[in-house]
Amino acid sequence: MSEYEPLLKDDLSCWKCDRSFPNMPKLKSHLQEEFDKLSDQEKAKEERKRKRADSLTHASSPVDKDNSRPDKLARESGGSSNNST
């Protein structure tokens, strides 16, 4: 009997939840489920992040383009003051 034989006889365990599994196929199936859950969580997180970035981009864009042009405002205000003098 080698020194590793007792380790080979032990149950296998999940690194994330520490559940024990009697054989490799059951552990593999469980690990795939864990990976799928993590993958879904990451996708949802990225989607929330993308939506937040999109909403910030739309909120910062000017609604009235005429107000964002100082040269037009200066001409309009300058023209009205010249007529009153």
**In terms of quaternary structure, what is this?**
single chain
Please report which band the strand proportion falls in: under 5%, 5-15%, 15-25%, 25-35%, 35-45% or over 45%: under 5%
Q: Which percent bin holds the helix content?
A: 55-70%
Question: What is the number of E strands?
Answer: 2
Q: What is the helix tally?
A: 3
- Radius of gyration over alpha carbons? 33 Å
Query: What would the average pLDDT be, to the nearest integer?
Result: 80
Shape: rod-shaped
Overview of this structure, please?
The chain has 85 residues and is mainly α. The chain has a domain at 1-59. Helices cover 67% and strands 5% of the residues. The chain contains three helices and two strands; from the N terminus they run H-E-E-H-H. The chain has helices spanning 5-9, 24-60, 70-84, and strands at 12-13, 20-21. The protein has a two-stranded antiparallel sheet with strand order 1-2. The chain is rod-shaped, with a radius of gyration of 33 Å. The mean pLDDT is 80.
What characteristics describe this protein?
67% helix; 85 residues; two-stranded antiparallel sheet; mainly alpha; single chain
Lay out the secondary structure.
Layout: H1 5-9, E1 12-13, E2 20-21, H2 24-60, H3 70-84
Antiparallel strand pairs: 1-2
Summarize the structure.
The chain has 85 residues and is mainly α.
